[in-house]
Structures are given as structure tokens and as C-alpha cells.
Design goal:
The complex is a heterodimer of chains A (89) and B (291). By secondary structure, chain A is an alpha+beta fold. Chain A has a single domain, classed as Ribosomal Protein S5, domain 2 (2-Layer Sandwich), CATH 3.30.230. Chain A has helices at residues 37-54, 71-85; strands spanning 7-9, 17-22, 28-34, 60-66. In chain A, a hairpin with a 7-residue loop joins strand 1 (7-9) and strand 2. In chain A, helix 1 (37-54) crosses helix 2. Chain A is globular and about 30 Å long. The two termini of chain A are 15 Å apart. By secondary structure, chain B is of the alpha/beta class. Chain B folds into 2 domains: 4-231, Phosphoenolpyruvate-binding domains (TIM Barrel), CATH 3.20.20; 236-284, no CATH class. Chain B contains 12 helices and 10 strands. Chain B is globular, with a radius of gyration of 20 Å. The model of chain B has no long low-confidence stretch (mean pLDDT 95). The chains are: A alpha+beta (89), B alpha/beta (291). The interface between A and B is medium-sized, with 20 and 14 residues.
Chain lengths: 89, 291
């Protein structure tokens, strides 16, 4: 299920990731900022897409500001943002 | 075996991801006081993922959920139970009814989620005057209760007294909880020492707790973990003495004697029981008897 409103989760603190999600017309648009983008950018984006797919989000605009978060943290923050964007929180 | 239990704020990835390397026998992922109401949803998912994906290499996993008078505790349990925590810390437990309310919900959740029934234990957090007065009823409410836990900060607020380092204001609660827990056959854990920079203070406080019969002690700072572990670990002298007690008992049996003395002191059942506990703990810690 797609998000129905703009929502965010996470923080800009070290080892965390800030995620902002908002409804989009079609498809997924992911904008990633990360200090480790060169080494891990693809991996982070894949993780974000995986969670969105698990949550059934087919179209959304997502901004991800990574502060060196582990995969389990990225997964948690994306899931939280999606749920908030659906008004489930 | 839990000597130390370290609280980790449930919405702080920087702390959570280090859970395995902070030296505590158990970590308490905190969904309650350390998390603001607006972030309860985020912390619940973050703690669930930490438990699901991170190997804590032998460190026990305890989760402090929100209290049963909030809108959060049931969601907490539904998210956390599938990750098989070692214990659920149930805050502001005031009566056996609070425990039974949580247990009923856990029973139902385990059933609906297809989890092993009764596998996750409860550790009521006693932090109100009512909770202290009902300590034995709480400890013996159900076999799910594995331990009591004293929370002195909220308790002293409820008692309308000042929380001091000397801790005279919690003497009654401490002894009452130890007696109640031991009478019910469960463990009992002492409140954290909150001055993270007072190294002497934490040691004295931990020694006091051990002296009163507490199983271990909680901490809000990784800095206190080492001291707590040391204080609650049997000394080499205690381990040697425990083995000597067991040797003496064996010798008495061989000689057909009913009683025997060691270092001029009669060895009786309570001393043997204590020796057995010391040896069990030493073995769990990989500590050997000296030659």
C-alpha cells in the first residue's frame, strides 16, 4: 500500500539514517545522501527498495540521508517512515 | 546468569548496535522512559530489527515495554515476542493483576503468532509503593515471573522522598523485594546507580546490593558494567571454599558421619546450598578452582 502523506523517521545522528517519504505519481524515486555513498550507495539503495517492496509501496519519493547506519537500522527507519506515511503510527 | 543488566535507549542506533560489546550479561532494550511518545513506533521497529538481525553473542536480551496503563504495551509485545526475548521487563507493576493482564495478552499473542506458549518470561519492575507492598503476590502470580526488579527513581518519587546516594530511603524496599523474590523462588535485581562518574559510589552500591541478597544489578551506563560484574562474581577464595565444602561433605559421607566441620565451623545444609550456587556460577563463568 502506498503512502498517503509526507512522513519522516530517524535522525541525523551517527549510526542512524534520516528517511523522508512522500506520495508520488508513479514509480519510486530514491534520493540518497551518504558519507559512504561511493562504497555502499548501491547496497543502501537496494535495502531501501527491498523494504518498500515488502511494504507494497509502488510509488513514492524517498529521500535518505545516511549517517553510517547498519542495514537493520536502515530497514527500521524506512519501515517506520512508510507506516507513518500511511497514517498507521 | 545475569550479574549486570545494561539499559539501552530503544531509539538510539548508536547504542543499540554496540549491545554485544559493552560487557553486560544482559541488555535491556528500553521502549519506555528512554523513548518519547512520538517515537514509540520507531523504537519498537528499531529494537525488533536489532534483535532480529544482530548477534549479541551470548548476551541476554530483555525488553522494557511500556506499562499496562498506556496505549503502547500491547503493540510492543506484538512486535517483540516473535524475536524471542529472554525476558520482558514490565514497568510500574503494582499488583498481581498487572502481571496477569500482561500474561493473558502474551498467551493470546503467542497463540495467534504461532509462538511457543509461555516461552518468554516476565520480570516485573517494582517502582511504586503499591508494588513494594504487593511484591510477593507479584513474584508468585504466575510461573512466567522469573525475577523482580527494583526501580528506585520512580519509587522514591512515589514515596515523596529524596533519592540519595546513601540509599537509606530504599532500604525497606530492597530488603522487602529480596525476601519476596526468594520466598517465591525467583531472582531479584537491584536498581541502577545513576551517577555515571562516581566509580567509588557504584562499587559501594553494588556491594550493598550483593550483601542484601540481590542476584545482580542494573546499570544505565556501560561504565558501570565492569564493576557490577566484578562485585557479583564469586572471588577465587569463595570458589576454593565452596569446593572445600563439597569435599568435606563427600568425606563425611565416606566416613559415615552425619556432620562435619571445616575450619572449625559446622557444615550444614545452607552452607552446602551456598557452595553449590557458588560452584554453579563459577562454572558458568569458566572460573576454576585453584590447585
Amino acid at each position: 500500500m502506498n503512502v498517503i502523506k509526507r512522513a519522516s523517521s530517524g535522525t541525523m545522528e551517527s549510526s542512524d539514517v534520516y528517511v523522508e517519504i512522500e506520495p508520488a505519481q508513479s514509480g519510486l524515486e530514491i534520493l540518497l545522501e551518504s558519507v559512504v555513498k561511493k562504497q555502499f550507495g548501491e547496497e543502501i539503495e537496494r535495502t531501501v527498495r527491498e523494504v518498500l517492496s515488502e511494504e507494497g509501496v509502488e510509488s513514492a519519493s524517498v529521500r535518505v540521508v545516511d549517517r553510517g547506519a547498519l542495514e537493520c537500522v536502515i530497514r527500521a527507519r524506512v519501515e517506520t517512515a512508510v507506516r507513518r506515511g500511511r497514517g498507521e503510527a | 546468569m545475569r550479574r549486570s543488566m545494561l539499559f539501552l535507549p530503544g531509539n538510539n542506533p548508536n547504542m543499540l548496535i554496540n549491545a554485544a560489546v559493552l560487557g553486560a550479561d544482559a541488555v535491556i532494550f528500553d521502549l519506555e522512559d528512554a523513548v518519547s511518545p512520538a517515537e514509540k513506533d520507531a523504537a519498537r521497529i528499531l529494537v525488533r530489527n536489532t534483535m532480529r538481525y544482530m548477534d549479541l553473542s551470548g548476551c541476554e536480551r530483555i525488553v522494557r515495554i511500556n506499562s499496562v496503563d498506556t496505549a503502547f504495551w500491547q503493540k510492543d509485545l506484538l512486535a517483540i515476542l516473535p524475536e524471542k526475548p529472554d525476558l520482558i521487563l514490565l514497568p510500574k507493576t503494582g499488583s498481581a493483576e498487572d502481571v496477569l493482564l500482561a500474561e493473558r495478552f502474551m498467551d493470546e499473542a503467542e497463540e495467534s503468532l504461532g509462538l511457543e506458549k509461555g516461552a518468554v518470561g516476565l520480570m516485573p519492575l517494582i517502582e511504586t509503593a503499591l508494588g513494594v507492598e504487593n511484591a510477593f503476590a507479584i513474584a508468585s502470580a504466575t510461573p512466567r515471573v522469573k525475577a523482580l526488579f527494583l526501580g528506585a527513581e520512580d519509587l522514591t518519587a512515589d514515596l515523596q522522598c529524596k533519592r540519595t546516594k546513601e540509599s537509606r530511603e530504599i532500604e525497606y524496599a530492597r530488603t522487602r523485594l529480596v525476601v519476596a523474590a526468594r520466598a517465591a523462588g525467583v531472582d531479584v535485581y537491584d536498581t541502577p546507580f545513576t551517577d555515571v562518574n562516581d566509580d567509588e559510589g557504584i562499587e559501594l552500591d553494588a556491594l550493598t546490593a550483593k550483601g542484601l541478597g540481590f542476584t545482580g544489578k542494573a546499570s544505565i551506563s556501560p561504565r558501570h558494567v565492569e564493576v557490577i560484574n566484578r562485585v557479583f562474581t564469586p572471588t577465587l577464595e569463595e570458589i576454593d571454599y565452596a569446593y572445600e565444602v563439597m569435599d568435606a561433605i563427600e568425606e563425611a559421607k565416606r566416613q559415615g558421619k552425619g556432620a562435619i566441620a571445616l575450619y572449625g565451623k559446622m557444615i550444614d545444609a545452607p552452607i552446602v546450598a551456598r557452595a553449590e550456587r557458588t560452584i554453579a556460577m563459577a562454572k558458568a563463568l569458566g572460573l576454576e578452582r585453584r590447585a
